[in-house]
Amino acid sequence: MTKNSHKASCLCGAVRITVAGDLPEGDACHCTQCRKQSGHVWASVDVPMDRVAIDGADNVRWYQSSEKVRRGFCATCGSFLFWDASTRDDIAIALGAFDNPTGTRLWSHIHVADKGDYYELGDGILQKD
């Protein structure tokens, strides 16, 4: 790993993630699946797999949520950590799992047409259906 890296983990610490280099800007997903799995909105950053090291990978369980997407979570504490599409070389990692400071920001809200009716988006960030 490079000198500039970012650490993340699940709630119990059984899964620890190191990302080499700077984190890209993230997005907040409002789709029904992310809302149901996370309990609200799921914010993440997409990182090339060759920059990601996972310690405790044997504690990650995968749920195939659609034909092309699987979601990874800690088998011990249940923390939702990964969104992995078979069509991409990147993996989405939960922004909430990272230790501060992350040095990044959200750049968009995605799947806003599916967002819950109990909140409004008013932060001025790009919104995509």
Automatic annotation (TrEMBL):
Residues 6-108 form the CENP-V/GFA domain. Keywords: Lyase, Metal-binding, Zinc. InterPro entries: CENP-V/GFA, Mss4-like_sf. It comes from the Bacteria. SUPFAM superfamilies: Mss4-like. One of its GO terms (molecular function) is metal ion binding. Belongs to the Gfa family. This is Uncharacterized conserved protein. It comes from Parasphingorhabdus marina DSM 22363.
